[in-house]
Design brief:
heterodimer, A: about 160 residues, alpha+beta, B: about 450 residues, Aldehyde Oxidoreductase, domain 3, Aldehyde Oxidoreductase, domain 4, 7-stranded mixed beta sheet, 5-stranded mixed beta sheet, 13 helices, binds FE2/S2 (inorganic) cluster
Chain lengths: ~160, ~450
């Protein structure tokens, strides 16, 4: 099968690959580029585990063709911490016990990142709405909601 | 959180200072940074993908299997059928001498549930494996199927599993696990009221976010490394060793990081066939359930039916309890004979009842094999028992919590299966629950203790 070139930035670093046409971004990230932080829980757009940020928007990488990402800026959960310092959301997830098996966590953190980028001080309902595409089977969601609200508060305190 | 250290203070030397203190989990930093390595977060050069051809029928004889078209499909490397599996008929609890072996790794001559694995296809890509699987031709003769436990137990019902020869598991105690204590019929005869109720549950899927799977790498020295999300590493290794007729020292299992299990990852399903594929091709093999397989193929919690008959006095004492429990194993045993047995041990609940009769059956039907899930064998029974307790309390016009105080077991009470009660704390828990939930009970119940009989 003829390969097609794709080129984008991943967490700020240039990436280029030749892929089979039709390859999902999830597959390209995990199996070609080696960033396994997006998780394939369903490969059909229902679990949110594969969530990534493409040009500032939350996207399901299992439903995104890699070849449509040429020139894009892609962020994944593995790219959030800087210099070994946890991102406030990561810190809040840790402190609030918002992660158990951890499989949903990268996707949750992606969804929460986009929420806080657009809505720095979300209401509880807005948090629930923003996470509604992400399934967690372990925590019962409440610790995750609390973690996002805590991260939002600590952000706004830092900004003040 | 509030700790009442006054309870059982004479039994404790420690000061319980850890309780109520949050402690960070050692795996959380990996989770939040996306660095935790789940089994599928590995990639090996030349890795093959395994896909199963599955039965579209609930019960059928296999007349023939034709893999000739599938073998020609581009990218296909190997196709496995029953004859390739060294010890194809197995059962996982054989490790603790619970037989007979009653399940096939790949179907041989017959399928007994819709979704049963028949042929394994190994190919260069997932897509090629999937496409080739669709080209495997299996000629089935559909047989009558049975889906209801009571139907399955009737004479003349289709036999689900020939390795048992009957649609129930034969315990050493006979057709069911039995507990006999006192004289239950005399208890009913002397009771002020008798209440019989039936409780039923459906199968429940664990639905972990990470689907079941493994990746197997041949190490070039006759050894195989199996990266797996099993919840039962050594149990799986030992069963794989039996199925593959391969000494355990050839198998190196790597795991412990599980993306949600809840009991759904303790069956030995993906590892043996993936190891066999790696052995026969000399290449790494990945076998990962699709979401559809996770929901439809992996074992659910068993459906259960529980019939409870109680004799109760107007003063609140339960004087007789008869329980008949049915556990739907589906087509194969897996953990269900054990689950049904646990039920027998668990009834009549945490209550002291002088006359008890318990029968629990493990029944075979043409449904998806059920297996372990969080307190299996007990959880549905507890639901039934506690709903029954509320109904009994209502029947005699008594407060449901006070009713439980009257019947609660205490240290020294003989349980129905003849284990004396030790370390009971039900009364104290209910006293705290009464306070915490602001559900007042009469003073005499607040001064009761698990230590001594008599109010
Ligand atoms: S893997 Fe993309 S939504 Fe589940
Ligand atoms: S922590 Fe396990 S699925 Fe969310």
């Amino acid at each position: 099968m003829a390969k097609v070139p794709v080129q984008f930035t991943l967490n700020g670093a240039e990436k280029a690959e030749f892929i089979d046409s039709g390859t999902t971004l999830l597959h390209a990230l995990r199996d070609k580029i080696g960033d396994t932080s997006p998780k394939g829980g369903c490969h059909q757009g229902t679990c949110g585990g594969c969530s990534v940020i493409i040009d500032g928007e939350l996207r399901l990488s299992c439903l995104t063709l890699a070849e449509t990402c040429n020139g894009a800026a892609i962020t994944t959960a593995s790219g959030l911490s800087e210099g070994g310092v946890l991102h406030p959301l990561q810190r809040a997830f840790l402190d609030a016990f918002a992660t158990q098996c951890g499989f949903c966590t990268p996707g949750m953190i992606m969804a929460a990142t986009v929420l806080l980028d657009h809505t720095p001080n979300p209401s509880r309902d807005e948090v629930v709405e923003a996470l509604s595409g992400n399934i967690c089977r372990c925590t019962g969601y409440e610790p995750i909601i609390q973690a996002v609200l805590t991260a939002a508060r600590s952000n706004s305190q830092n900004a003040a | 959180m509030e700790l009442r250290k006054s309870y059982f203070a004479d039994q404790r030397k420690d000061d319980l200072h850890e309780i109520g203190q949050p402690r960070p989990r050692s795996d959380s930093p990996g989770h939040v940074t996306g660095k935790t390595a789940y089994f599928a977060d590995r990639n090996f050069p030349g890795m093959l993908h395994l896909k199963m051809v599955r039965s579209p029928h609930h019960h059928a004889r296999i007349r023939s299997i034709d893999i000739s078209e599938a073998e020609k499909h581009p990218g296909v490397v190997k196709i496995l059928t029953a004859k390739d599996v060294p010890h194809n008929v197995y059962t996982i609890l054989i490790l603790i001498q619970i037989g007979p072996e009653d399940e096939t790794v790949l179907a041989d001559g017959k399928v007994r549930w819709k979704g049963e694995a028949v042929v394994a296809v190994l190919a260069e890509t997932e897509r090629a494996a999937q496409e080739a699987a669709a080209k495997v031709k299996v000629d089935y003769e559909v047989l009558p199927a049975v889906f209801d436990m009571e139907e399955a137990l009737k004479p003349g019902a289709p036999t689900v599993n020939e390795y048992h020869g009957r649609n129930y598991y034969l315990y050493d105690s006979g057709e069911c696990r039995k507990v006999r204590f006192g004289d239950v019929e005399a208890g009913f005869a002397g009771a002020d009221h008798v209440l019989e109720q039936t409780y039923q549950s459906s199968p429940i899927e664990h639905a972990p976010t990470e689907t079941t799977g493994c990746i197997v790498v041949p190490e070039g020295n006759d050894r195989f490394t199996c990266y797996t999300n099993t919840q039962a590493m050594f149990f799986t290794l030992d069963n794989a060793s039996i199925i593959l007729q391969m000494p355990g020292n050839k198998l190196h299992f790597v795991g412990g990081t599980v993306g949600g299990g809840f009991g759904g990852k303790v069956d030995v399903i993906v590892e043996p066939i993936a190891i066999l594929g790696a052995k026969l091709t000399g290449r790494p093999v990945s076998f990962i359930y699709s979401r559809e397989e996770e929901m439809q193929i992996s074992s659910p919690r068993a459906a259960e039916k529980v019939v409870i008959k109680d004799g109760v006095m107007n003063d609140g004492r339960i004087v007789a309890r008869k329980v008949t429990g049915y556990t739907d194993a589906g087509a194969y045993s897996r953990h269900s004979p054990y689950g049904a047995q646990k039920g027998a041990g668990h009834y009549p609940g945490p209550y002291t009842i002088p006359n008890v009769w318990i029968d629990t059956y493990c029944v075979y039907t043409n449904r998806t094999p059920s297996s372990a899930m969080r307190g299996f064998g007990v959880t549905i029974g507890d639901f039934a028992l506690e709903v029954q307790m509320d109904k009994l309390a209502r029947l005699i016009g008594m407060d449901p919590l006070e009713f439980r105080f009257i019947n609660a077991y205490r240290d020294g009470d003989m349980k129905a299966h003849r284990q004396p009660t030790e370390g009971a704390a039900l009364i104290e828990c209910m006293q705290e629950a009464s306070r915490a939930a602001n559900w007042p009970v009469a003073e005499k119940y607040l001064s009761m203790s698990s230590y001594a009989k008599g109010v």
